[in-house]
Amino acid sequence: MWVTYNQNLLAGQLQGIEANLEQTRTKLRELQHGLRRWRENRVQGGRKPAVDGVRHQVERALSAQFMKKLIAYESCWAIEPNPTSRARFGT
Length: 91
Prior knowledge:
The protein has helices at about 5-40, 50-60, 65-70, and strands at about 70-80, 85-90. By secondary structure, it is an alpha+beta fold. The protein has one domain (about 5-90). A two-stranded antiparallel sheet has the order 1-2. The longest helix has about 35 residues, at about 5-40. About 10% of the residues are buried.
């Protein structure tokens, strides 16, 4: 069995992972911002975000290669007495 090391290949792979990581962080920040706006009653009209819908958006954002392993997230929902929703993530 032969194992070879190629610095250019490694650099390219890391560049791709870093690009995916930044795109995923951007999507999650946008989702987080939207949930915060809804929680602070700054959204006019529309339906309140559903748990399944938010979970689906997070899963879709994390669908890029290795993102589920690199980013941990938590969603918090409290319905009574004041409906609130929060999403937190970290790398």
